[in-house]
Amino acid sequence: MAHNCSVLSLCFSHDNEYLASGDYEGTIKVWRVATGGLLRKFVHVHDKGITKLCFSQNNQQICSASYDGTIRYE
């Protein structure tokens, strides 16, 4: 379940239970660290590559920034 293109950004949740990865095509994937399993996939969140990811304090949302000049919450 790897990305189809280069990963540009990674971010661990505050409790280190989850890892988010953002790629060149604007896709975000959320992984469970303990198992390496894919939990969620957000396809084409941005029109260009994801440069920054951040989990909310309660791990319920992910904030992402992109080369397309936008910031989004998922």
List its salient traits.
74 residues, mainly beta, four-stranded antiparallel beta sheet
- Uncertain runs: none
Strand content: over 45%
- The helix count comes to 0
Give the biggest beta sheet: 4 strands, antiparallel
* Overall pLDDT level: 95
Amount of helix: under 10%
Q: What sequence of helices (H) and strands (E) makes up the elements?
A: EEEEEEE
Shape field: globular
**What is the number of strand segments?**
7
Rounded to an integer in angstroms, the radius of gyration calculated over CA atoms is: 11 Å
Question: Can you list the strand order of the major beta sheet?
Answer: 1-2-3-4
Distance between the termini: 20 Å
Structural class: mainly beta
Describe this structure in words.
- This protein is mainly beta and 74 residues long.
- It contains no helices and 7 strands.
- The protein has strands at 7-12, 18-23, 28-32, 38-42, 50-55, 62-66, 71-73.
- The strands form 2 sheets. The chain has a 4-stranded antiparallel β-sheet, with no helix packed on it. A 3-stranded antiparallel β-sheet has the order 5-6-7, with no helix packed on it.
- A hairpin with a 5-residue loop joins strand 3 and strand 4.
- It is globular and about 30 Å long.
- The model has no long low-confidence stretch (mean pLDDT 95).
Question: What's the quick description here?
Answer:
The protein is an all-beta fold and 74 residues long.
Summarize the helices and strands and which ones pair or pack:
Elements lengths: L6 E6 L5 E6 L4 E5 L5 E5 L7 E6 L6 E5 L4 E3 L1
